């Protein structure tokens, strides 16, 4: 078997067996390296050399976690909790509960979408907004798998479709890598080509919200923590300072293209204006960093995993075998290319990093099969995005888990990865294939 397939299968199987994702990635990398012809020493060297590429992302998430916890201590998120709890506890409980459910889902979906394009803070909003409302989710008996599906949709669909914020970065990568592979395209064609695949994500979201996870699900609730939350009040000064801090964080990130600088700017505003007490600062920031540490370790390990896969040189033979196996059959070849993209992204955990790996091979392969430029854009964009939802190493799944598992009642693999894989990757394969055939 191809080393890429072996590495990814080992990682996924171990993850499904509830082995820690970091260890699953490490063991999967070792399996892939050894089966790909690398010695144990070379495999370990490639893995450790690749770890450094994830350091910036890990520090970014640690800083964002500290910033999120610092803001939460101002009492701002608790204003939302208090208001929704009052709404739930009024007369006409059933109707108001449904209204509260809809309000929470729409609010989280909107924030997730904005985090990719209009306010490019990615998953930084999740540890800020989700943990304080877990009490409400428990009161309303909302299945947290539903919230994970909503958040993951908002973290993936916008950047795939819209050329703003992180979407602009994704589209530029597609544009540049296709050009390097010998096919010049117009960036304005990318949203048109990706409209049909993203429709598949929307179908998956509708199924998750209205069918799969609509039934109530019970979670243990700490009553004292709810009372503590409702008692917290944010002063007018804290509200104003928090708004300034958020603006400063956004401005710092946009100007420097660094989440680290953005988070630092926001934290400094909270410091300077007294919204975060000096004597509490160390404990607050440490708590936030600990909350996001798991994501950081997974992202660092995923980079090592990706380095081993690339060192085996097994990606190109995998794609080439697709060409040999389905030569002349356009429909099956398109489906096979999408499946290859799914395997690569599931292992690496980043659609942004997958595009450069597959574009150089997919472009000439697609031209050989006679696909049009629009169809090739749809194939490469969809193949790159496949696996972002559902991958244990993707921040689109790690982010929701970080917020929903604060009380230890939400499993990363079975409550985030498996639901999002089923509801988004399957429709994305189907609609991506339809797009490739329709546009060809």
From TrEMBL:
<dbReference type="Pfam" id="PF03553">
    <property type="entry name" value="Na_H_antiporter"/>
</dbReference>
<feature type="transmembrane region" description="Helical">
    <location>
        <begin position="291"/>
        <end position="311"/>
    </location>
</feature>
<keyword id="KW-1003">Cell membrane</keyword>
<feature type="transmembrane region" description="Helical">
    <location>
        <begin position="121"/>
        <end position="137"/>
    </location>
</feature>
<feature type="transmembrane region" description="Helical">
    <location>
        <begin position="369"/>
        <end position="387"/>
    </location>
</feature>
<feature type="transmembrane region" description="Helical">
    <location>
        <begin position="99"/>
        <end position="115"/>
    </location>
</feature>
<feature type="transmembrane region" description="Helical">
    <location>
        <begin position="51"/>
        <end position="71"/>
    </location>
</feature>
<feature type="transmembrane region" description="Helical">
    <location>
        <begin position="190"/>
        <end position="213"/>
    </location>
</feature>
<feature type="transmembrane region" description="Helical">
    <location>
        <begin position="260"/>
        <end position="279"/>
    </location>
</feature>
<feature type="transmembrane region" description="Helical">
    <location>
        <begin position="331"/>
        <end position="362"/>
    </location>
</feature>
<feature type="transmembrane region" description="Helical">
    <location>
        <begin position="146"/>
        <end position="170"/>
    </location>
</feature>
<dbReference type="InterPro" id="IPR052576">
    <property type="entry name" value="AA_Transporter-Related"/>
</dbReference>
<keyword id="KW-0812">Transmembrane</keyword>
<protein>
    <submittedName>
        <fullName>Sodium:proton antiporter</fullName>
    </submittedName>
</protein>
<keyword id="KW-0472">Membrane</keyword>
<feature type="transmembrane region" description="Helical">
    <location>
        <begin position="7"/>
        <end position="31"/>
    </location>
</feature>
<feature type="transmembrane region" description="Helical">
    <location>
        <begin position="234"/>
        <end position="254"/>
    </location>
</feature>
<feature type="transmembrane region" description="Helical">
    <location>
        <begin position="421"/>
        <end position="439"/>
    </location>
</feature>
<feature type="domain" description="Putative Na+/H+ antiporter N-terminal">
    <location>
        <begin position="2"/>
        <end position="87"/>
    </location>
</feature>
<feature type="domain" description="Na+/H+ antiporter NhaC-like C-terminal">
    <location>
        <begin position="150"/>
        <end position="433"/>
    </location>
</feature>
<dbReference type="InterPro" id="IPR018461">
    <property type="entry name" value="Na/H_Antiport_NhaC-like_C"/>
</dbReference>
<keyword id="KW-1133">Transmembrane helix</keyword>
<dbReference type="InterPro" id="IPR032813">
    <property type="entry name" value="Na_H_antiport_N"/>
</dbReference>
<dbReference type="Pfam" id="PF13726">
    <property type="entry name" value="Na_H_antiport_2"/>
</dbReference>
């Amino acid at each position: 078997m191809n080393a890429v397939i072996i590495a990814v299968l080992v990682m996924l199987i171990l993850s499904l067996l509830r082995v820690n994702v970091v260890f699953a990635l490490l063991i999967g990398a070792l399996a892939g390296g050894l089966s790909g012809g690398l010695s144990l020493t070379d495999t370990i060297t490639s893995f450790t050399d690749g770890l450094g590429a994830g350091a910036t992302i890990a520090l970014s998430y640690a800083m964002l976690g500290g910033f999120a916890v610092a803001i939460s201590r101002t009492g701002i998120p608790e204003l939302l909790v208090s208001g929704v709890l009052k709404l739930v506890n009024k007369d006409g409980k059933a109707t108001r509960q449904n209204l509260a459910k809809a309000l929470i889902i729409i609010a989280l979906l909107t924030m997730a979408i904005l985090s990719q394009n209009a306010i490019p803070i990615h998953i930084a909003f999740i540890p800020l907004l989700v943990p304080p409302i877990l009490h409400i989710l428990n009161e309303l008996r909302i299945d947290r798998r539903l919230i994970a599906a909503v958040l993951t949709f908002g973290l993936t669909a916008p950047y795939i479709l819209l050329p703003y914020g992180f979407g602009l970065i994704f589209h530029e990568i597609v544009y540049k890598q296709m050009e390097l592979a010998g096919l010049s395209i117009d960036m304005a064609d990318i949203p048109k080509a990706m409209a049909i695949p993203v429709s598949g994500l929307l179908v998956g979201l509708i199924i998750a919200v209205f069918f799969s996870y609509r039934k109530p699900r019970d979670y243990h609730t700490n009553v004292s923590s709810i009372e503590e939350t409702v008692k917290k009040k944010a002063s007018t000064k804290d509200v104003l300072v928090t708004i300034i801090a958020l603006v400063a964080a956004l401005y710092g990130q946009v100007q420097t293209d660094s989440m680290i600088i953005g988070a630092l700017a926001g934290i400094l505003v909270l410091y300077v204006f007294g919204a975060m007490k000096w004597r509490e600062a160390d404990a607050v920031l440490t708590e936030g960093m600990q909350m996001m540490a798991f994501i950081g370790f997974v992202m660092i390990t995923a980079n090592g995993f990706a380095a081993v896969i690339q060192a085996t040189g097994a990606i190109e033979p995998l794609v080439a075998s697709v060409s040999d196996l389905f030569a002349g059959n356009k429909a099956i070849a398109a489906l096979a290319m999408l499946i290859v993209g799914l395997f690569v992204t599931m292992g690496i955990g980043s659609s942004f990093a997958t595009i450069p790996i597959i574009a150089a091979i997919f472009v000439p392969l697609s031209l050989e099969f006679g696909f049009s430029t629009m169809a090739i854009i749809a194939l490469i964009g969809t193949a790159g995005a496949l696996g972002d939802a559902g991958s244990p190493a993707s921040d689109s799944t790690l982010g929701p888990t970080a917020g929903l598992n604060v009380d230890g009642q939400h499993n990363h693999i079975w409550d985030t990865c498996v639901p999002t894989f089923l509801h988004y990757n399957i429709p994305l394969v189907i609609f991506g294939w339809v797009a490739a055939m329709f546009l060809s």
